[in-house]
Design goal:
Length: about 110
């Protein structure tokens, strides 16, 4: 007797976004872009971006957060302070759950001019 093996893909949590780049930095904002990660066989429903100043002690108490639709691979962040260094980290999420964080990137905003 032959047994048919189940060949349906298993859904997994996505990989973290990669190749996060600051494509436009100004005195009060930044545009970030990234590459779509491996989705875990389920579409990315959203990305979650956290940021904080480099002088902030803790990601949990000193960070801000924004949720970005899964169809986007860039976001514009405004309301930053001039000549300030910020750390950014990003997660991907699908119906199974959230990825780990990708690399933390560090950006210093421009001087106000």
């Amino acid at each position: 007797m032959y047994r048919i093996k189940n060949t349906l893909p298993h859904n997994l949590v996505p990989d973290p976004p990669s190749e996060i780049l600051a494509t436009d930095v100004s005195s009060r904002g930044v545009v970030l872009s990234w590459s779509v990660p491996y989705t875990g066989n389920s579409p990315v429903t959203k990305y979650v971006l956290y940021w904080k100043t480099a002088s902030g002690d803790s990601w949990s108490s000193d960070s801000k957060k924004i949720e970005i639709p899964g169809s986007n691979t860039s976001v514009s962040i405004s309301g930053l302070l001039p000549m300030t260094t910020y750390h950014f980290k990003l997660q991907a999420e699908n119906v199974i759950g959230r990825s780990s964080f990708g690399e933390v990137i560090t950006i210093t905003t421009d001087e106000e001019g």
